[in-house]
Amino acid sequence: MLSPETQTPPATRRLAVVIVNYNSWEDVQRLVDELSQAAEVQDGRAQVIVVDNCSPDPMPESLRSLPEGVKLIPRTENGGFAVGVNAGWTAARGCWLLVLNPDVVADAGLIANVLSRIDRFEREANPPGIVGFGLKNPDGSPQPSVGVLPTLSRTVWEQLIPRSRRKYQPEWRIKPGPVPWVTGACVLLHPTMMEEVNGMDEDFFLYYEEVALCKSAQNKGWQVMYDPSISVVHLRPLQNRPISARMRVITRHSKLLYFQKHLPRWQFLGLHAIIAAEAKLRGAWARIRRRDDDARSWERIRLVARKMKHGDENLRGRAVLKLADEVVTATEIP
Fold it and tell me: How far apart are CA 271 and CA 265, in angstroms?
């Protein structure tokens, strides 16, 4: 047995990989299996934290006995993505955070490569606060992950292009280095930056929370960077999936909330007018076609827009989910 003087000291934990789950247990199991094999997790330099947002389906038995270096945080309610990230951040206790969506595929060297980047950043006088890594589609092609900050004029222009291209810039326009904002599917967060902005804004239930985080970080003097030299495969990006009636309510609320919090009042009012008109016209068309769920979703969106215009601050986080739940009787969650 080695004496205390000759024993190898335990590694200092420097990275926490945070996975926010809602009913994606199969994806979580696969990702945990991939990440837990990394030497950096096994020797304590990195930790994997799974935050479960009160999934209705039971956790698989295989996850009840977690590998070394993996921690599960079960929540008693679904508070949304930002709430889940903040729960992981709190548990990480000063580590850099690598936030991953459950539906990403990580190669064996991901954690080692991220720790190498952290080493480089910590030698810099002004390290970035947020670093978005590259995303790829399952066929290996690049997946958009960088966007421009929303404005009213940009919103008007977006109505003329396909939904899959509205939020993100095309790959050919993006270069490594400083960018306006990056997606939260695979993103590295500086612990001091998170402290200065008080974590992700939990008023956003889903969507636009990463845009708001990047904006808040920049307001505090932090840079947002894009580094595609590290990448993961992202299996099911939201922009490639159909928008359900429930998700429509949540996404419209999130965009209105971003405008309300981060842009001049006149831009918020302009967006409110656009969304209110859209909801009125599309709601009428849905009723003509007898698409009840769609019609109800547009009614809820008009209600959301009206309440926000009149300064109702109770429409935040889970309150938006409750309103969206009234659209349909089905139990699926977006």
Answer: 10
Dihedral of the CA atoms 313, 315, 318, 322 (nearest 10)?
Answer: 150
Domain spanning 15-240, CATH architecture = Alpha-Beta Complex (3.90)
Residue with tokens 């934290």: 49
| Tens of pLDDT, residue by residue, the chain (334 residues) | 333 443 434 568 999 999 999 999 999 999 999 999 999 999 999 999 999 999 999 998 888 888 889 999 999 999 999 999 999 999 998 899 999 999 999 988 999 999 999 999 999 999 999 999 999 999 999 998 999 999 999 888 877 776 667 778 877 778 899 999 999 999 999 999 999 999 999 999 999 999 999 999 999 999 999 999 999 999 988 777 777 888 899 999 999 999 999 999 999 999 999 999 999 999 999 999 999 889 999 999 999 999 999 988 888 888 888 888 887 654 343 3
C-beta of residue 199 within 8 angstroms of C-beta of residue 88: no
Residue with tokens 């330099």: 45
Give DSSP secondary structure letters for 303-325.
HHHHHHHTT-TT--THHHHHHHH
What's the token pair of residue 244? Answer: 């359900």
For residue 158, how many C-alpha atoms fall within 13 Å in the half-sphere facing its CB?
18
Residues 107 and 84: their CA atoms lie apart, in Å, by 24
One-letter amino acid for residue 93 of the chain: R
Q: What is the C-alpha to C-alpha distance for residues 177 and 180, in angstroms, rounded to an integer?
A: 10
pTM over 0.85: yes
Residue 40 to residues 29, 102, 291: CA-CA distances in angstroms? 19, 20, 52
Residue ranges per structural domain of the chain: 15-240, 245-325
How far apart CA 321 and CA 176 sit, in angstroms, is 36
The helix/strand count (H/E) of the chain reads as 11, 12
Asked whether the beta carbons of 315 and 308 are under 8 A apart, the reply is yes
